[in-house]
Design brief:
The chain is an alpha/beta fold. The chain has 2 domains: 3-63, Winged helix-like DNA-binding domain superfamily/Winged helix DNA-binding domain (Arc Repressor Mutant, subunit A, Orthogonal Bundle); 75-260, Rossmann fold. It is built from 10 helices and 15 strands.
């Protein structure tokens, strides 16, 4: 791992809990304590975190990091999840996608499908999203109708939130909603860092005939700040084969269908 990738990985670790210790970096990234401290000092000089004795805490700009910092994290698992999600969607469906790296991977998988790319006088797929990066990714596909929710941009996540977003979502019906989260627990349910994004994600799920969680197995057991939707809002959870047998059974006991990609 080169230095640039390592610094991004440190910021990703920091985004998980808002604080990090040198020992955490040593264990997770396999570097020496001296390297970990130098990396934290370098990020502090860029005002991306605040140094503490033995570690660092996040600043507002590092609370939930933009997608460009996360693209390499669990990429293989997210691609597998995205393919499994895409396989559920028939041609011509209306799909809701929230922001986040896994949802972005789902958008890529949908756009790459030969049946979606076929020339047609009508949209082969309609995608409703509050993520400006996903809209920009799909707008070049003439067969895909892209609908943006409107709203105020969250700089940390590239998602649109607020009453304008709610107004648009309240007037549409979705066949599927694929919602990425920062944490998912069989009892607490899905959670994200930001309460505004949680509200949009919950409404998008509510407007869908089928609401699907998409998250890699590293998110299982984690709890972020804001809950997404009421208990039972999601009937399906797509994750990767890193899920344990106990975790799988816990989700099934909670009444959720689990698809292991």
């Amino acid at each position: 791992m080169n230095r640039t990738a390592r610094l991004r990985a440190v910021l990703d670790l920091l985004a998980e809990t808002g604080q990090i210790e040198v020992d955490d970096i040593v264990e997770r990234l396999g570097v020496s304590p001296a390297t970990a401290r130098r990396d934290l000092d370098a990020l502090a000089s860029q005002q991306l975190l605040s140094r503490t004795r033995g570690g660092a805490t996040g600043q507002s700009v590092a609370y939930d990091l933009p997608l460009r910092y996360k693209r390499e994290q669990h990429a293989e698992q997210k691609q597998a999840i995205a393919q499994a999600a895409s396989s559920l969607v028939p041609r011509g469906a209306v799909v809701g996608l929230c922001g986040g790296t896994t949802s972005t991977a789902v958008a890529s998988a949908l756009a790459a499908r030969p049946d979606v790319a076929e020339p047609s006088s009508r949209p082969t797929l309609t995608v409703v999203t509050n993520a400006i990066n996903i809209a920009a990714q799909l707008v070049m596909r003439p067969q895909i109708k892209v609908v943006m929710t409107g709203g105020v941009v969250q700089a940390r996540s590239y998602e649109l939130v607020g009453p304008y977003t709610d107004s648009v979502l309240g007037q549409i019906a979705l066949d599927f909603a694929f919602i990425g989260v920062n944490g998912v627990d069989p009892v607490l349910g899905p959670t994200v860092h930001d309460e505004h994004e949680a509200a949009v994600n919950a409404l998008m799920a509510d407007r869908a005939e089928r609401a699907v969680l998409v998250a890699d197995s590293s998110k299982i057991g984690r709890r972020a700040f804001a809950s997404v939707g009421k208990p039972g809002a999601f009937d399906t959870f797509i994750t990767d084969d890193g899920i344990t047998t106990k975790q799988l059974n816990d989700f099934k006991d909670a009444g959720m269908r689990v698809i292991v990609a």
